[in-house]
Amino acid sequence: EIAGTWEIDIPIDKEQFNAIKEVYPIDKTVEIQGQRIYFDTLIIYPTRMVLDVKYDERNTIKLFDFEGLKITDEKGEWLTISNGMSASIIDDYSKKIYFQSNYFNKPKEIYLEWEAIRGLDKDKLEVIVDLDKQELLKNPDNKLLFDGMYFLNGRAGKGENKEILFKFLLEKNDGMPYMHYQILEGSFYDVTGKKIESMGYSTSTSVKNDKVYEEIGYHIPADVNIKSPITFKIIDYPNRIKIPHRLKIK
Asked: What is the reported pTM?
């Protein structure tokens, strides 16, 4: 044994590392139930893969996200490390999807596969709540319920009302594995068009009438003047186009 602490500096040229990549132009459009999705390019770096996707502005359905999306080789084996996907939204119609990379695996063929796509008709992208009657005036389907408006006394549970809680219930009994994601924007609009920001977003699971629901809560300062009805915008929703697809990239 050698006593003491040894420190070793290992210099890394990050610029040279970032320049290493393989570019695969895809340039293919897939049409599913009349909805067009354009796949532009797949870029494979040593640390991640980036897929450029664009949705046709003329689509009648707002497409949110893929389910079961993966990159495979000619043997059907995954090229990506499990649970390594995220995305950045460029605009309403474009996004970059990131996968963890398996850069040093050199397959003969590369495929993009998915099991389903979440999406809603563009005329169903709003949730409208009448606060006076405590009921939904508009929702995409019967899976989403309004469970009421509650006045809270803050974390200590004492004193005057500090928060208003708007609670929604989202039914989870549709036979598909449920993944957690936010379905409504963090802000909403009252009847005058005033934008109101939520202080927090909370979720939990409950069982009511033998059905499993996700409870979704929006916490609003109690002193905010809100004129009913209020409108939330849907940014994702568990409504699926269950058509598996396999697209050849290489």
From this structure: 0.82
